[in-house]
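Deliverable D2.4 — example input (structure tokens):
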């Protein structure tokens, strides 16, 4: 099973699965270009040194460049790639981390409100901050969510709206469930 399918319970399905917005990677890509450019420039200067210092300088430049690339480029990329924000029919799932993995699951029934914020830069990039207020003391904040307005709407519909209410032409009669789909669990015991 692919992630997050192995996290789902029976009958639960994924509505949306997002990684943080790629704007998180702008600084690491910039640092990769700067580090490689500086390493090439320093290597050109080091080759003019007398032996054996030219070899020592090249090894030092290579080691420092490698450490900088791992620290400033590879680690943020792996952190971005292993951060997941998932909305399912039953809950909101957030997972992050590589060595120290952290996660939170928020059942839809426990969500009191959901809102989003995005400033000018976030609007240009098409992302924002999602704030979920649940039964916990503090609101939970999720930064750099791509298409935050669509995610906000998906969570709102799962929490406050019946996802089975927009059948349009497939609905046989008012209040009838389509034959292809089961009614949602909250509607099964209501005599529909």
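Example output (designed residues):
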């Amino acid at each position: 099973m692919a992630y997050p399918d192995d996290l789902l319970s029976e009958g639960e399905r994924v509505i949306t699965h997002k990684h943080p917005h790629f704007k998180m990677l702008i600084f690491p890509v910039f640092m990769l270009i700067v580090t490689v450019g500086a390493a090439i420039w320093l290597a050109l200067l080091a080759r003019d040194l007398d032996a054996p210092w030219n070899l020592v300088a090249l090894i030092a430049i290579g080691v420092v460049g490698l450490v900088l690339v791992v620290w400033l480029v590879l680690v943020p990329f792996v952190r971005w790639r292993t951060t997941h924000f998932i909305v399912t029919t039953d809950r909101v799932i957030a997972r992050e981390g590589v060595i120290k993995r952290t996660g939170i699951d928020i059942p839809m029934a426990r969500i009191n409100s959901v809102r989003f914020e995005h400033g000018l830069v976030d609007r240009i990039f098409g992302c924002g901050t999602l704030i979920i207020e649940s039964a916990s003391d503090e609101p939970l904040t999720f930064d750099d969510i791509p298409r935050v307005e669509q995610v906000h709407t998906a969570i709102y519909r799962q929490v406050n709206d019946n996802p089975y209410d927009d059948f349009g032409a497939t609905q046989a009669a008012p209040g009838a469930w389509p034959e292809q789909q089961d009614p949602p669990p909250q509607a099964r015991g209501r005599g529909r």
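Strands lie at 14-18, 84-88, 91-96, 102-107, 113-117, 127-133, 140-146.
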